[in-house]
Amino acid sequence: MNIYDIAREAGVSIATVSRVLNHKDTVRADTRAKVEKVLKRCSYAPSAIAQGMVSKSLHTVAVLTVDIRDSHYARTAYTIEREFGRRGYEVILCNTGGDRAETLRTLQAVAQKQVDGLILVGSIFNTICQGAEMENLLRKMPVVLANGTLALPDAYSVMVDDCRGVEMAVEHLVKTGRRNLYYIKDKSTDSAAAKGFLSGMAAAGLDADGHVLETGETLEDGTRVVQQLLAEGIRPDGILCGEDLTAAGVLKALLRAGIRVPEETAVVGYDNSTYARLCEPELTSVDNKPEQVALLCVQLLQSRIEHGEDYSSVTLQPELVQRQSS
Question: Does residue 283 contact residue 323 with C-beta atoms inside 8 Å?
């Protein structure tokens, strides 16, 4: 049944049915009740596309992330999806795997769907989304980046000061008497975090040359890099990691080697995820507030879509959550 049938059944004009569907206050109460009764009886569901043609908005946004299985991305994307849903928007959630070609294909697909806006979750999009072809697609819609930046006129950022977060972790370990610190960076971690380690070490007057190590993003990768350090005769008294899962692997390797944590080596993770609380001892971790980032992304993008004004990007400060591993 279409809108013409509804109008005929209710004995009103098509324009009146349209005003009822769009919640206009120019319809008499008795007429509105009559139309709504027919709508309910016929289980009428208005076409989102047709409504979008009238309002010039489909109330649909796209969220691109790297891998929804990752705890940090999952927390951010979940909060975005739930909050937009609460505000009456549909959300298209896409995983790109961090691959440039897949990201381009996904952007082409969401542009064709004429979404109202886009949120990119992950600092990796800083580099993936460079180049004329990518930028031309991104110019078609307002974009908000969770922990990323793009030099485009309608792109906005909700950032966490990861540099400061790692500096805080270094300061914490130095205060507990640690001097031989290492930073283990997984490949997807923003380079700003490594800069925080270097600046924190410099401020403490400590040598950081060769103390930044890159590994993969799994528990096994964290374990492997510590085993390699120990095999080379290197015994750090403090290890910082770019994420909690890597830190869990570090902790596992240290305990397997008979090294006491935190007495001999302290370990600090990043993200303050469930992994941090599952470890024994529980991990000290930097809380980079993904749920708060997500809510601000939603607020910023919705305001941009509905009010069409320029808005300022936002930077949040992380928090060190101390537990038994340090």
Answer: yes
CA-wise closest residue to 162 among 185, 195, 187: 195
Amino acid at site 56:
K
Residue 74: per-residue pLDDT: 93
| Amino acid occupying residue 203 | A
pLDDT tens string 55-64: 455 689 999 9
Output Rg (C-alpha) for the chain, integer angstroms: 25
Dig out the tokens for 325 from the structure. 């591993």
203-250 pLDDT, tens digit per residue, is: 999 999 999 999 988 899 999 999 999 999 999 999 999 999 999 999
Which of 64, 71, 69, 72 is CA-nearest to residue 92?
Answer: 64
Long-range contacts of 15-20 (CB under 8 A, 24+ apart): 18/54
Dist CA 239 CA 326 (whole Å): 10
Distances (CA, A) of 315 to 71, 160, 267, 288: 21, 5, 26, 11
CB 131 within 8 A of CB 102: no
Low-confidence stretches of the chain (pLDDT < 50) are: 49, 52-53, 55
For the record, the structure tokens of 247 come out as: 């830190």
The token duo for 200 is 């924190």
Token pair for 51 = 């409504």
